[in-house]
Amino acid sequence: MANGLENTTATQTQPAPAAEPFPPFDTTNFASLLIWLVLTFGALYLLMSRIALPRVANILETRHNKINADVLAAHAKRKEADQASADYQKTLADARTNAQNLAQETHAKLAAEAEAKRHALDSELAAKLAVAEKQIEETKAKAMANVGQIAQEATTAILEHITGKPADPAAVADAIAKLKV
Question: Strand ranges (DSSP E) for 10-117?
Answer without folding.
Answer: none
